[in-house]
């Protein structure tokens, strides 16, 4: 298995890892439906957050 | 962010598995970035895995909240490194979990804010995130 680092996160690549999707997981489906409901109401934030530096 | 994080296992950039190690033992967890109905908007989910089933309501109380939040934060960095246009939406599975996300954003606001635009959802609209304000959900995207 391949290992690599992103910032200080150590990541191992495993092609055998089980994937969870809305189709095979009620929890994921519920979460995505909640996000879609939020989108239906508001869409994404339209403004750019201006940061003072 | 130089906080301790768990090592994660992935087979693509959208899902990261790790094992929480604490006072209640070893607990399998997964962080998922799921596509939604809107292009470039992904939903963040943090769940326990029990017998191959995801559970977003379990309270593991493993004494490693800071390390888990740091791991989630690093996974958001990793994910958005590969999806620069992505916005990531996060809503806790309970009020307590939403508060937990909020505490993490409050505590590490300066560092997160340096890399991300942060928004909070309340009163059915988005607002620029402000510390010490209660929100129902959060959204971040790379600056």
What is the gist of this entry?
The complex is a heterodimer of chains A (53) and B (143). Chain A has 53 residues and is α+β, with helices and mostly antiparallel strands. Chain A contains 1 helix and 2 strands; from the N terminus they run ββα.
Topology:
The complex is a heterodimer of chains A (about 55) and B (about 140).
Chain A: E1 2-6, E2 9-13, H1 26-42
Antiparallel strand pairs in A: 1-2
Chain B: E1 8-12, E2 15-22, E3 25-35, E4 41-50, E5 53-55, H1 65-82, E6 87-90, H2 95-107, H3 109-115, E7 116-122, E8 125-128, E9 137-142
Parallel strand pairs in B: 4-6
Antiparallel strand pairs in B: 1-2, 2-3, 3-4, 4-5, 6-9, 7-8, 7-9
Mean pLDDT of chain A: 78
| Measured distance between first and last alpha carbons of chain B | 17 Å
Sheet with most strands: strand arrangement of chain A: 1-2
Beta percentage of chain A is 15-25%
Order of helices and strands of chain A: EEH
Measured on Cα atoms, how large is the radius of gyration of chain A?
A: 18 Å
Please tell me about this protein's structure.
The complex is a heterodimer of chains A (53) and B (143). Chain A is an alpha+beta fold and 53 residues long. Chain A has one helix and two strands; from the N terminus they run E-E-H. Chain A has one helix at residues 26-42, and strands at 2-6, 9-13. A two-stranded antiparallel ribbon of chain A has the order 1-2. The radius of gyration of chain A is 18 Å and the shape is flat. The termini of chain A are far apart. Chain B is α+β, with helices and mostly antiparallel strands and 143 residues long. Chain B has helices at residues 65-82, 95-107, 109-115, and strands spanning 8-12, 15-22, 25-35, 41-50, 53-55, 87-90, 116-122, 125-128, 137-142. In chain B, strands 1, 2, 3, 4, 5, 6, 7, 8 and 9 form a nine-stranded mixed β-sheet that branches. Classes of the chains: A alpha+beta (53), B alpha+beta (143). Chains A and B meet through strand 2 and helix 1 of A and strand 1, strand 2, strand 3, strand 4 and strand 5 of B. Strand 2 (9-13) of chain A pairs parallel with strand 1 of chain B.
């Amino acid at each position: 298995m391949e290992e690599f680092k992103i910032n200080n996160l150590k990541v191992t690549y495993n092609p055998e890892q089980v994937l969870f999707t809305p189709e095979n997981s009620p929890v994921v489906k519920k979460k995505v439906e909640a996000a879609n409901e939020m989108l239906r109401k508001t869409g994404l934030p339209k403004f750019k957050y201006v940061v003072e530096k | 962010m130089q906080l301790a994080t768990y090592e994660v296992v992935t087979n693509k950039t959208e899902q990261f598995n790790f094992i929480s190690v604490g006072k209640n033992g070893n607990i399998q967890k997964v962080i998922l970035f799921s596509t939604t109905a809107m292009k470039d908007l992904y939903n963040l989910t943090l769940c326990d895995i029990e017998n191959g089933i995801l559970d977003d309501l379990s309270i593991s109380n493993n004494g490693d909240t800071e390390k888990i939040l740091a791991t989630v934060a690093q996974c958001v960095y990793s994910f958005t490194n590969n999806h620069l246009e992505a916005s990531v939406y996060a809503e806790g599975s309970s009020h307590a979990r939403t508060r937990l996300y909020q505490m993490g954003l409050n505590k590490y606001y300066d560092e997160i804010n340096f890399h991300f635009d942060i928004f909070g959802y309340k009163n059915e609209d988005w607002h620029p995130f402000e510390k010490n304000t209660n929100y129902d959900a959060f959204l971040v995207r790379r600056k």
